[in-house]
Amino acid sequence: MSVVGVTTYDPVTELWRYRHLLVSLTVRELRIRYKQTVLGVAWAVFVPLSMMCVFTFVFTRAVTLPDSTDLGMPYPLFAYVGLLPWTYFASGLNGCVNSLVSHRNLVTKVYFPREVLPMSCIGAAFVDFLAASFMLILLVIYFHASSDWSFTLRPSVLFLPVVVVTQTVLTVGLGMLLAMANLFYRDVRQVFSVIIQVWMFGTSVVYPLPHSDSWIGRLAFANPMTPIVQAYRDCLIHGRLPDAPSYLYAVAVAVIALVVGWACFHRAGFLFAERI
Amino acid sequence: MPRGLLQLTGVSKRFRRGAAHDRLGELILSGCRRILGRQRRRPVDSFWAVDDLSFEARPGEAVGLIGPNGAGKSTALKLIARILRPDRGRVDVRGRLTALIEISAGFHGDLTGRENIYMNASILGMRKAEIERKLDAIIDFSGVEPFIDTPVKRYSAGMQARLGFSVAAHVDPDVLLVDEVLAVGDVLFRQRCIGRMRELVAGGAVLLFVTHNLEQMQSFCSRAVVLDRGRAVFDGLPNSAVAHYFDALRAQLPADTSSNDPSADAVVALVVKSVEGCAASVVSSEDPIEIDVVLRAARVYRRLAIEIDIRRELGSCLANFSSIRDDQTFAVPSGRSCVTLSLPSLPLGGGAYVLSALLRDAESGRVIADSGFRYQLFVEDGGRPTGILCLPHEWCYTDANALRESQRDDRASRPSPGVLIG
Description:
heterodimer, A: mainly alpha, B: alpha/beta, Coagulation Factor XIII, Chain A, domain 1, 7-stranded mixed sheet, 6-stranded mixed sheet, 10 helices
């Protein structure tokens, strides 16, 4: 008998065949996270909300932002709109870093496209992100009613899904690289926990980044998360589309991250079971 | 209907012995050294875990994969399951492949049995609708229904194995790889699993079955491949495969040093002789045989007792002959002598058996020498039953008329059930 119908798939088709596994793993990730907790999914709201309170205290009581900075909205709202996507980004990547290593049993004993492990962590972070978004609506209503700031819903909100997708693409690309790197060198996890802290302060999450031509200013704008976080504020609160050049730059970085990340991940995939 | 197909062509896998650099620091250091030209390339110490393995399994074939620990059985399964990639050769699989390498690999202790079924089934490549359709059957098969909504961390190992196997058995694979996972379940469940695997094989699936339970393998597989240190040393009928498996095991036994030392007590040889009195490695189950225990005593023993065991595997003992139980001890001088055990017949099924003998000083009760599992006894299997025992028997046929008559006689002669209860 000759060699017959050997089924091999390209990574995208393979992932599509295992999409149910991606959903199951995401659900499992969430179930495990919130099992035996009293607050359950309310924790997803609690984390950005408490951060918002801390930074509101810091930037309105301890230090004050320069008078010239016009946020265009109350500071707590400014902070929350920044913290919401940032938490999605950071907790998604944080899950990815450990995703392969913590599922050693699956990686060494069962075959499935390994991409679903980091992707399911991002999926779980995305569900948290959606839950925390409801809090944003409440905050907008609160500040609209209680302060002299007023909110008007503009059509630019329709651009938000594009922003979310851009951010997700970037996160998936980086997440796969991190998951893989941490599998080979466990140092990555330690380095990552420092970098993600620094990165947050290099992104206009809790304060607006000053435009400057200093190297720090340029570095801040090389950071693709700055235009993405800015785009959330633009679309949602300011009611305008994001600044096109810097946003397109972020899209380009996100796509490159995904292509490079996935390609490396797929090519190194056969080593995972051996080197974990 | 031909379904599954499995074909391995010269598949080889090399593993590194010892640890690779695992820390970033080491990598940077070695990188720097290499740039400075001071790095002596560390010779990579590697070995072939699977070496040039080729075989093919056709639809409806159940193939056993046996071999000593570390022979490369699990690595071979992982290569087939695409968990590892072969360094050389190729694996061709047609159809849906399910590998049961560790039954509870996809389980998470905090999730309930039901949640874990969904999880495990989707890891094995099942769709949600398919899982929902088969959920009841899976729960039913596993027999853990009362605990299906209890977190799996509160399950016993056997219950986890049951649940894991139930899921895998309902994937309807075309190629099923099973790696020694049935050992935890109880006998009843094991039989149910074997039954399910038989069904799959009858439906055209290919089964590759790794086990150390040779009897189970023999009763279930139509063919067996013996692996030893990564190489396939035999591919053929299960009964003959078992003999090769023992050869591989025996090669790993530590060399018997006591028999070389002329001043120690030892079993020098166990010789099986057929009816003609000549040494035979293969005997027939119907003929009388003799077993010579050639021994060497370091000193004079006034009362030496001998025990002989016949075993199926290196475990279960089928027959034990003890001279002390038969009120017989032997006075032996120092030096070589021989004790013979005669058997009118050896009613064993065809296959390989292990023969061992030990010498006991009946005065002190101490064991002074033990042959270990070094000697083998082959019983020829010319059309004889493949079970362990070969019992004397005959058949008889009763036609329908005679049956009715005997039933009438029965009814007349037997008291009715009511009478029995009363």
